[in-house]
Amino acid sequence: MEAIKKIVVIGPESTGKSELAASLAAHYATVWCPEYARAYLEENGSAYTYEDLLLIAQGQLIIEDDFLQDAKNGLYFIDTNMYVMKVWCEFVFGECHPFILNEIAAREYDYYLLCDTDLEWEEDELREYPDPAIRRRLFEIYADILKQQSVPWSVVSGMGESRTATAIAAIDQFLLNH
C-alpha cells in the first residue's frame, strides 16, 4: 500500500479550515476528514464542558482513522487535530486532558497548514470569538505550537481561490521536497 501523507489544516475558528480541506481534497482527488466538534455540538448543544472536549477529541480521532481508509493519491487532508483540541482546552479551561497530550505525542502527521485570520469572521451558533484581537492571539498560539515541533508547516492566507492556490503551492513544494 502506498504511504499516505497526512496534511492537517488548523487555525482559529472561522478561518476557512473546512472549506480549504474540502477544496484541497477535491484538487488532489482524495478525501478529507471533517471537524468532529461541529457535529458533536450540533447534536449535544453548544454549552460544552471540559469533559465534552475529551469526548470531542476521542470522536475526532475515530473519524480521522475511519476516513484515512479512503485516502487516495498518497494524500489525506484533516480539518483539525489534537493541537486544536489542546488550544481549545487550555484557552477555555486553563488545562488540557492528558489523553489529548498523549495523542499529540503518539500521532504522526506530514505537514500542517495554519489558516490565517485574514478572512472576515462569520457568525454561527457554534462560534465564540468574533473579536479580531482574540482571533489573532489564537493564531499566534497555533504558530508557536508549530514552531516548537518538527513537522513542516505553512501559513495560508488570501481570499477564496487565492487562499486555495496558496495552499496548493505550499503542498506541491512540500511534496517536491519529501
Output the keywords:
single chain, 178 residues, alpha/beta, 5-stranded parallel beta sheet, 7 helices, globular
Shape: globular
Please report the number of helical segments: 7
Secondary-structure element pattern, one letter each: EHEHHEHHEHEH
Distance between the termini: 18 Å
Largest sheet: 5 strands, parallel
SS elements, strand count: 5
Walk me through this protein's architecture.
With 178 residues, the protein is α/β, with parallel strands linked by helices. It is 53% helix and 12% strand. It contains seven helices and five strands; from the N terminus they run βαβααβααβαβα. A five-stranded parallel sheet has the order 2-3-1-4-5, sandwiched between helices. α1 crosses α7, α4 runs antiparallel to α5 (98-106) and α4 (82-93) crosses α6.
Brief overview, please?
With 178 residues, the chain is an alpha/beta fold. It has 7 helices and 5 strands; from the N terminus they run E-H-E-H-H-E-H-H-E-H-E-H.
Strand-helix topology:
Elements (H helix, E strand, L loop, with lengths): L4 E6 L6 H11 L4 E2 L2 H9 L5 H19 L6 E5 L2 H12 L4 H9 L4 E5 L16 H16 L5 E4 L3 H18 L1
Parallel strand pairs: 1-3, 1-4, 2-3, 4-5
Helix pairs in contact: 1-7, 3-4, 4-5, 4-6
